[in-house]
Specification:
The protein is an alpha/beta fold. The protein has 6 helices and 8 strands.
Length: about 190
């Protein structure tokens, strides 16, 4: 199954693209793994070892402590690492301009601030938004929610593609609704033809 995070660049770019999946876990759990069947190329990063990555661009590294020189391009960046403040730390470490990054999906787990009394707002959601806004990025999907209504991630687009997709903007939308909209857009796109 193609996940929201990975169908977004397919729908917006309309062609195979490069990606960087940070916090990929196993191939079965990676949102970018299905992109390989669609001629996309990228790197899979996780601090832990997972079986099934043999022969692929899997790197077992700490994403908060790498220089990213081994990645030449990543038009799509997906960040899903564990640990409070770690997502923001990883986001700041990735050279977005150098990698020609156009689209970012980054978890913030904002729902945990309310439900678990852990401040993910001041350690993840707010600093991520301030940082990317300052760099000129546009928030396309704000506080995407899971099937339980938990707001857990944001989707961002670079300023130069904002005009082409700003009509898709939404807040607190269920990921299944976003998936349906993006899937329809993708089906209308030349990518599949």
């Amino acid at each position: 199954m193609i996940h929201n995070q990975s169908i977004l660049p397919m729908a917006l770019l309309g062609r195979p693209f490069t990606f960087l999946d940070i916090g990929c876990s196993s191939p079965k759990e990676s949102c970018c793994y299905p992109l390989l069947e669609l001629e996309c190329e990228g790197h899979f990063i996780d601090i832990n070892h997972f079986d099934g990555w043999d022969g692929l661009n899997f790197h077992q590294i700490d994403a908060t402590k790498t220089d990213w020189n081994f990645v030449k391009e990543a038009e799509f960046l997906q960040i899903d690492v564990e640990g409070i403040g770690k997502r923001f730390e990883v986001l700041k470490s990735v050279p977005l301009d150098k990698l020609d990054t156009k689209i970012i999906a980054v978890e913030h787990d904002g729902y945990r601030t309310k439900k678990h009394n852990v401040d993910f707002d001041s350690t993840e959601r707010i600093p991520q938004r301030e940082y990317l806004t300052k760099l000129g990025w546009n928030l396309l999907y704000k506080d995407v929610t899971d099937k339980f209504g938990n707001d857990y991630e944001d989707y961002w687009v670079r300023d130069d593609i904002w005009e082409d997709c700003k009509h898709l903007y939404s807040e607190n939308e269920l990921n299944t609704n976003i998936y349906e909209k993006l899937n329809k857009l993708w089906e209308e796109n030349t990518y599949q033809h």
